[in-house]
Inverse folding.
């Protein structure tokens, strides 16, 4: 019965339906679990308003729960991990095992099938471990966080507006799912690093690669906005630029400051090679990198002016090795940021470890789930 309750709170009539046991058996089991501190029973005021009489709501209080975090890295596949969390060590979540899955079918439905099969395999592989309580999934696409839908992804060719990935997944696996945009998953991993401490952090995290995204964290929480789509850095408009963007508009920052635009503007295929050439003094490569850095800095500067982050995390992948890029970015940012507005204390350049997005996805699942039971001394 605890495994059933791991999916979230439920009511006694639902438990009777789900288990097939008589009402009296369910009643006894709930009372026993309540006495041992494994479940809590509360009034559901929503139901009371609707039906006119109170319905008791039964929730599991787990001492150990398993969470699965997954992140779609690119068109070919996704990474995942299993996070086992106990109240003995809330800040020291055990992360294992890790692995990756292939995506043969890149449609939203194909992703849902691949992810649900992996969650099923992980559940079957460890039948004695704590029940899986929730799943977090990070995708490189525009996510409506509240609705749990993927609105658009130029790279995946997901034109379908509002593909309901979260509800499709929840139906297939019978567990709560949290859907996150990849840049927010990176930010959640950063937030998780401070979990349990009193430190509430305000920072700005930029994810630059084939696309361009920003996640603004204010005092420990992600700024989502009215429809959950705050932070569209990549689609800010660049003066004088008319190139058509994957979003359908013209002159977006993504058309000058992403890997695909840098490759197109240099006429070369590898970002690693472009950076190496620039570091060796090749002026043609450096011109493109500096232009990308300056436009990116103006976009980021607008975010800095409006949100006042304490630090700036730049997840830039292979560009982490480019001196020209980083120098031009910093110079332009200093010029662009309002004089009385402080520059972020630190700019942290990172090479984009996709496992961080997987960890962030697991954290999204962990932080959404009801509290774990406090062990008595
Ligand atoms: Zn655009």
């Amino acid at each position: 019965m605890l495994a059933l309750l791991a999916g979230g709170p439920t009511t006694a009539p639902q438990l009777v339906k789900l288990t097939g046991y008589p009402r009296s058996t369910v009643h006894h089991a709930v009372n026993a679990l309540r006495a041992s501190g494994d479940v809590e029973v509360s009034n559901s005021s929503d139901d009371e308003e609707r039906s006119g009489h109170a319905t008791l709501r039964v929730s599991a209080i787990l001492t150990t729960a398993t969470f699965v975090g997954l992140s779609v890295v690119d068109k070919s596949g996704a990474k995942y991990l299993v996070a086992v969390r106990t109240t003995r060590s809330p800040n020291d979540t055990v992360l294992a095992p890790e692995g990756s899955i292939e995506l043969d079918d890149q449609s939203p439905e194909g992703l849902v099938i691949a992810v649900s099969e992996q969650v099923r395999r992980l559940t079957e592989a460890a039948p004695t471990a704590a029940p899986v309580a929730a799943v977090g999934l990070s995708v490189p696409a525009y996510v409506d966080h509240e609705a749990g839908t993927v609105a658009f992804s130029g790279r995946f060719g997901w034109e379908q507006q509002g593909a309901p990935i979260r509800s499709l997944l929840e139906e297939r696996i019978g567990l709560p799912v949290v859907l996150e945009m990849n840049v927010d998953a990176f930010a959640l991993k950063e937030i998780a690093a401070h979990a349990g401490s009193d430190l509430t952090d305000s920072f700005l995290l930029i994810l630059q690669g084939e696309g361009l995204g920003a996640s603004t964290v204010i005092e420990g929480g992600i700024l989502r906005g009215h429809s959950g789509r705050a932070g569209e850095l990549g689609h800010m408009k660049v003066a004088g630029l008319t190139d058509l963007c994957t979003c359908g508009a013209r002159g977006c920052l993504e058309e000058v400051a992403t890997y695909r635009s840098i490759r197109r503007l240099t006429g070369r295929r590898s970002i690693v090679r472009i950076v190496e050439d620039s570091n060796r003094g090749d002026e043609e490569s450096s011109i493109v990198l500096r232009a990308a850095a300056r436009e990116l800095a103006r976009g980021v500067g607008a975010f800095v002016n409006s949100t006042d982050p304490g630090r700036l995390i730049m997840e830039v992948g292979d560009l982490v090795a480019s001196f020209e890029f980083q120098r031009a970015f910093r110079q332009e940012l200093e010029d662009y940021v309002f004089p009385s507005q402080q520059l972020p204390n630190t700019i942290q350049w990172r090479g984009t470890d996709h496992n961080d997005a997987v960890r962030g996805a697991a954290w999204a699942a962990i932080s959404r789930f009801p509290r774990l039971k406090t062990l008595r001394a």
